[in-house]
Amino acid sequence: MADAPVVTRFAPSPTGFLHIGGARTALFNWLFARGRGGRFLLRIEDTDRARSTPEATAAIIEGMAWLGLDHDGEIVSQFERAPRHAEVALQMLETGHAYRCYATQDEIQAFRDAARAEGRSTLFQSPWRDADPADRPDAPYVVRLKAPRDGETVIRDQVQGDVTFRNDQLDDMVLLRSDGTPTYMLAVVVDDHDMGVTHVIRGDDHLANAARQGQIYAAMGWDLPVWAHIPLIHGPDGKKLSKRHGALAVEEYRAMGYPVEGLRNYLTRLGWSHGDDEVFTTAQALDWFGFEGMNKAPARFDFKKLENVSGHHLAMMEDEAILAELDGFLAATAKPPLDGIRRDRLSAAMYCLKDRAKTWGDLLEKGEFALASRPIQPDAKAAAALDAVSIGILVELTPQLQSASWSRNDLEAVIASFMDPRELKFGKLAGPLRAALAGRTATPSVYDMMLVLGREETLARLEDVFSSGRD
């Protein structure tokens, strides 16, 4: 088993969209397999037919694709494998590792009520466990695992360490329901075995399941996978992650404009660490990721840290990569695409935008001056900066800008020579310039904007302000 190629899997239930906790589980499995040249498989656990929807399945697949978590082989449907699950249960019947239980729900409840009244364990002990297999009443039955009653089951977990469960605290779980359909616990084990999964990496809320599932492996004589139960994600207040904390669908993070590399980096750090490294590339994560860096305690989701990490990644990205991912963001949020001169200007402005932005929305907001078309419509604050005195200053400045060579040094020199004799401070001039060129007061520097827009567009935007003032 130790020398076998690594095979991991992600097995979501399509009863809702891919939430951020599921995305991190998928990411951990992907990193572990890909970093070791192994295989990463996708299984949709769609046995809950009443709640499973094609839309949720599609959203899970799309969310994983956006995160860059490619999987190997065909997607496995757990529902379609029900005959195989039943086949394994029948094999356990034949070998004596399972039995038919004819106990009714009323009988089970009566057993538990009596046990509770007598202060005994309410764990159901079926009277059919040791019955003669030939004694088969003409009545509905379930198939139960004949679990060991004595001793202990030890889960040797790569994250949690050795976790021991007393066997007398584990019941004879149902493998097949009375209608012949397999239970989740059976289906998971059979699927993982048949798919060749070597490492089961999942949330630590499944730790108790591992003890019961391990008994199925033992009954079938199958090798156990390597267990790794990772800590859950909590909110900043230490409580279970909820929507107010950030327990949102992955698509919502995409719509909020987080660059995918930044989100992957942040999710990797939720419950795992590599020394003091906070910002790293996916290539580095693939090289570094392993169980030794895993924490036992729940990770805490923090939007401020996510924004900080995302900002670092945005600043590190090549301009062409930014524009490509920006196209996807605009399409996913039903915003108009970048084209023509707007795309060229934003590309030219990237040097003064990407170091200051944390999300795609932030980048677009800071780059609005490059995207806007004439005449620029100022917001309320910008309009207030364009009073009669300020417009008069811009009218005087414009002829001197017309003769500038349009390099940064020359533009700085022209504006300095304009301000000095008039005893103007730069802020007195910068405010109206920002308002005229961008229609807002929070922008990149006026020099960056003039260089990106060019002489013709800069002067035309100033002329629009004059014309508006005259009107």
From TrEMBL:
This is Glutamate--tRNA ligase. It comes from Mangrovicoccus algicola. Its main location: cytoplasm. GO terms for molecular function: ATP binding; glutamate-tRNA ligase activity; tRNA binding; zinc ion binding. Its EC number is 6.1.1.17. Residues 6-307 form the Glutamyl/glutaminyl-tRNA synthetase class Ib catalytic domain. It is an enzyme of class 6 (ligase). It comes from the Bacteria. Monomer. ATP binds at K243. It is found in: Cytoplasm. Belongs to the class-I aminoacyl-tRNA synthetase family. Glutamate--tRNA ligase type 1 subfamily. Residues 330-464 form the Aminoacyl-tRNA synthetase class I anticodon-binding domain.
